[in-house]
Specification:
CATH class of the domain at 1-79 in chain B: Mainly Alpha
Chains: A mainly alpha (about 675), B mainly alpha (about 220), C mainly alpha (about 100)
Order of helices and strands of chain B: HHHHHHH
Oligomer: heterotrimer
Shape of chain C: elongated
Order of helices and strands of chain C: HHH
Largest sheet of chain C: none
Helix content of chain B: 55-70%
Structural class of chain C: mainly alpha
CATH superfamily of the domain at 1-79 in chain B: NADH-ubiquinone/plastoquinone oxidoreductase chain 6, subunit NuoJ
Number of strands of chain B: 0
Number of domains of chain C: 1
Chain lengths: ~675, ~220, ~100
């Protein structure tokens, strides 16, 4: 079992290296197939490990296996080790499964891009880093995997590197992630250095109750900073909408299903620490709630198709963070899984629509694609129903389980409970706003063209965000676009995810009908005070399910009324709620706030430092000074070689006399 | 008697030395040096170095100085100023330096703990300084220096010939080969090496400009 | 008439020769002053040879004479070459050994 555990991490790394080294030799779609095969092998290993883990006794389901001793010095014993336990295998299954389908999708979607092999090398590298993160057995590998996924995200967001908007977005994502990395490392410092003195997870968790309260809370809050940056929670969320500059498979994989869920995984993994530091857990819950609402309201006013889905991701992750912070671990992770299914499906379908529009992403220009793209439409509908929380789709079961468990905590958590339901309603509204605007109404010219059997090509390729002209060479998107209706691999991937989004919810049904996820994850959370104790009564659960379903259907109905039934309603609503609309459209002005409070002071400080310290001290004194001294010294020495024979003779005689004097003095 | 001879020879040597340094005409300097060498030969005799004295007179004053006379006659140099280019400061400096050197050397000699300096010298056997003894030493104890010295003489002879011959030596060079004319710009092996000019018949082709602009990734 | 007197004379001639090397402009005269210094060394060698009573110093003095002869040969060859090429026969004008 340990071998397959290491192979889970090893196959994507191997795939990445092979594609990276052979990029010139792999013609056609070979690079894509190699990449997909690597992830598929990793998925198979994850399944094998899952079964062998299930075959073990209940007490022996947390296995640490280490490859080598990385560093063993004073106080620090760092090994390269992975922890094979239900939580890590759960995450590995989700990551490898969804990645495999997204790789399959990308084989066709990115086929005309000049950077095809590079794309798959990066994507495999990302999957490797994510698996390293979730399977790490100690804080060291966690931090390594954390940093690697940040790097992979940067590489993939600025994949079309000649686009200025893409590179700027990549840098923004990287910088915000680094802020999170600092939080993670400092948190580890507080927990490891001042507390448990061991980097190993299991060792740290055993000593959790020995760590001083102040240190533990500080450490956990710093870990939360890392989680918020990676999972795009307020206020470290500004990178996620901009990250939509990357290709659509990247958005599907990294910014919907896997990387942004790393924060959720972190909080779930560190549950012994968070349960000992309730203040930190409360911070997590509150931030999750705030993010949920901010993102949902912002998504109501966005016009870029991918950005709507991005804000939806942010909002759903708010649910997950709220869930794992209040103790609903299995529910939060279950929502992570179902969300991965339907969000990846939505992104893939969005990619298909954007391809049909020849790269245009603005919702204002889309409409009436229902007849032209039936398969994509069906996928969008399934994803939308799952996201809005309509039974029997998967999103319904997972989201409502989280909300009912939050209500079960009681006390001030009722505020979170209410906010979560409001968010649920808003989710339905903005999701179906997007679907109605893109698929209902009169077909736009591109849709008409597609109904006639011809895929629209833009003569002049432009940047969808700024409108500036681009060409289709390397560093820019390729000339051709691929839609789901025409590519077999895209259809297979989207079909598989649609099936999972529909039936995935049946892994965990309320009233104890099915609780596969609960029972599977129990060995990891053994000893938690919330895992078994948070058990709402049947009546309360039924009430929750009912409210959830009603709100979802009401949201869809409202969206239908505003955007389909009465076409002018949207403008009237916008005019009436002008101030709120401006707030939502401008993303609650977070970008401007961060720019004014953080970015500008830093830049000003940097300029000041360069003008004074660097120019005067470093350049002037240190560099200029040493070169000046050398120059003067060598000029002085050079003066000896004047060319005058007489001077040379004099020097020789003087030296001789000096030598004789020296020996004379010495002898006396 | 020996002291009188010593003083005469000594004063002669020093006078000759000063004459070499101070006289303007190089010809007269050479003559002063000859006088100095002869005085020195007398001093050598006082030191019981007969053979060396004879060698000094015959070789040094006889051959080397004659060579000098010839060269001075050829080259000349009466019209040169005696004063060096550095001005009177250099002259004063040189005199002071010479004085300091003299003082130092005297201190080195006399202040050393060599007791024998004050004597007339050690006991010597009758053959001291004779050609016989010198010859024996040269061929037994100092054979290697002897051989090396003769080799040095050979080298010096060859070197002198090389230095003093006319440009071009005995064989006259051909006048004005095409290699002497300056090359036009952009031709020649440097241009070929850099790649501006492709050598004929080498099979190299110019690469078209745009090929190099296409990137990989 | 002890050995010391000879040594004093030798020192005196040596210093005069050194001063001459530093002062004169004509390379021929500079070479003559070099000869002075060599002769002074010869005198010292012979004085010490007499002091020890042993012939080694005399052989050394003969080798010095040989070396002086060679050096004069070459030096004069250089001066003649300078003269032939119509370069100024002046020590202060020959400055090409500069750095």
């Amino acid at each position: 079992m340990t071998t397959t555990g290491w192979l889970i991490v090893g196959f994507p790394l191997f795939g990445s290296i092979v594609i990276g080294l052979l990029f010139n030799r792999l013609g056609g779609r070979a690079a894509g197939l190699v990449g997909t095969a690597a992830i598929a092998a990793s998925f198979v290993c994850a399944i094998i490990t899952f079964f062998s883990l299930e075959g073990r006794g209940h007490e022996h389901r947390q296995v640490v296996t280490s490859l080598w001793d990385y560093a063993n010095t004073v106080g620090v014993d760092a090994q390269v080790s992975i922890l094979i336990d239900p939580l890590s295998i759960f995450m590995a299954l989700v990551v490898t499964g969804v990645s495999m389908l997204i790789h399959l999708y990308s084989v066709a979607y990115m086929a005309s891009d000049r950077g095809y092999a590079r794309f798959f090398a990066y994507l495999n590298f990302f999957v490797f880093s994510m698996l390293l993160l979730v399977m790490a057995g100690n804080f060291l590998l966690l931090i390594v995997g954390w940093a690697f996924v940040g790097a992979a995200s940067y590489l993939l967001i600025s994949f079309w590197y000649r686009r200025t908007t893409a590179t700027q977005a990549g840098i923004k994502a990287f910088v915000v992630n680094v802020v999170g990395d600092i939080g993670l490392v400092l948190g580890t410092y507080f927990i490891f250095f001042k507390g448990s003195h061991t980097l190993d997870y299991l060792g740290t968790f055993d000593k959790a109750h020995q760590i001083a309260g102040g240190n533990l809370t500080a450490g956990c809050i710093l870990l939360l900073v890392g989680a918020f940056a990676k999972s795009a929670q307020v206020p470290l969320h500004t990178w996620l909408p901009d990250a939509m500059e990357g290709p659509t498979p990247v958005s599907a994989l990294i910014h919907a299903a896997t990387m942004v869920t790393a924060g959720v995984y972190l909080i779930a993994r560190m549950w012994p620490l968070f349960e000992q530091a309730p203040a930190a857990a409360d911070v997590g819950a509150i931030v999750g709630c705030v993010t949920l609402l901010v993102a949902a309201t912002t998504a109501l006013a966005q016009t870029d198709l991918k950005r709507v889905i991005a804000y939806s991701t942010m909002s759903q992750i708010g649910y997950m963070i709220m869930g794992v912070s209040v103790g609903a671990y299995a529910a939060g992770l279950f929502h992570l899984m179902t969300h991965a299914f339907f969000k990846a499906l939505l992104f893939m379908a969005a990619g298909s629509v954007i391809a049909a529009m020849a790269g245009e992403q603005n919702l204002d220009r889309m409409g009436g694609f229902r007849r032209a793209m039936p398969f994509t439409f069906a996928c969008f509908v399934i994803g939308g129903l799952a996201l809005a929380g309509i039974p029997p789709f998967s999103g319904f079961w997972s989201k409502d389980e989280i909300i009912s468990l939050i209500g079960e905590r009681g006390g001030w958590h009722w505020i979170l409970f209410t906010a979560a339901y409001i968010g649920s309603f808003l989710t339905a509204v903005y999701t179906w706003r997007m679907i109605f605007r893109a698929f209902w109404g009169d077909p736009v010219p591109e849709a008409v063209e597609l109904e006639g059997g011809h895929l629209h090509h833009a003569e002049v390729h432009t940047n969808p965000a700024t409108g500036e002209e681009e060409d289709t060479e390397v560093g820019f998107p390729g000339p051709d676009h691929h839609i789901a209706e025409r590519e077999g691999s895209m259809k297979i991937a989207m079909g598989a995810l649609a099936v999972l989004a529909t039936i995935g919810g049946f892994l965990q049904l309320p009233f104890g009908i099915v609780d596969a996820v609960d029972r599977f994850l129990e060995p990891t959370f053994a000893g938690s005070k919330y895992y078994d104790s948070l058990d709402p009564s049947d009546g309360f659960t039924l009430l929750g399910l009912g409210i959830g379903a009603v709100l979802g259907i009401a949201g869809i109905a409202l969206a239908y009324r505003i955007w389909v039934q009465k076409p002018g309603t949207a403008e009237r609503v916008r005019a009436r709620f002008g101030a709120a609309y401006a707030l939502f459209k401008n993303k609650w002005w977070f970008d401007e706030l961060i720019d004014a409070t953080v970015v500008r002071p830093f830049a000003a400080f940097g300029r000041f430092g360069q003008a004074t310290f660097e120019r005067v001290f470093v350049n002037g004194t240190l560099v200029g000074g040493t070169t000046g001294i050398v120059r003067v010294g060598s000029a002085a020495v050079r003066a000896i070689q004047s060319g005058f024979l007489r001077a040379y003779a004099a020097l020789m005689l003087l030296a001789l006399a000096g030598l004789a004097l020296y020996f004379l003095i010495q002898a006396s | 008697m020996a002291e009188v001879l010593f003083f005469i020879a000594g004063i002669g040597a020093i006078a000759g030395a000063i004459g070499v340094v101070r006289v303007a005409n190089p010809f007269y300097s050479v003559l002063a040096l000859v006088f100095h060498l002869l005085s020195l030969a007398a001093l050598f005799l006082l030191l019981r170095a007969q053979f060396v004295a004879a060698a000094q007179v015959v070789v040094y004053a006889g051959a080397v100085m004659v060579l000098y006379v010839f060269v001075v006659a050829y080259v000349g140099g009466e019209q040169m100023p005696v004063r060096p280019a550095g001005g009177p400061a250099l002259q004063i400096g040189a005199i002071v330096f010479a004085g300091a050197l003299f003082v130092e050397l005297v201190i080195a000699f006399l202040g050393s703990s060599l007791q024998a300096i004050d004597t007339d010298g050690a006991q010597y056997d009758p053959g001291f300084g004779t050609p016989g003894q010198i010859g024996e030493l040269l061929l037994t104890k100092f054979l290697l220096p002897f051989e090396v010295a003769s080799f040095l003489l050979l080298i010096a002879a060859v070197g002198a010939v090389v230095l003093a011959r006319r440009r071009g030596g005995i064989i006259q060079q051909a006048q004005g080969t095409p290699l002497d004319r300056p090359r036009p710009l952009g031709t020649g092996t440097m241009a070929e090496a850099v790649g501006i000019l492709l050598p004929e018949g080498s099979g190299l082709k110019e690469e078209p400009e745009d090929e190099r602009e296409k990137g990989g990734w | 008439m002890s050995i010391a007197w000879f040594l004093v004379v030798s020192a005196m001639v040596f210093s005069i020769g050194a001063g001459g090397v530093l002062t004169r402009r004509n390379p021929l005269v500079v070479l003559l002053c070099l000869e002075l210094m060599l002769n002074a060394a010869n005198l010292a060698l012979l004085a010490f040879s007499r002091m020890w009573g042993n012939g080694d110093g005399q052989v050394f003095a003969i080798v010095v004479i040989v070396v002086a002869a060679c050096e004069v040969c070459i030096g004069l060859g250089v001066v003649v070459a300078m003269f032939r090429r119509r370069l100024p026969v002046d020590v202060d004008e020959m400055t090409e050994l500069s750095g």
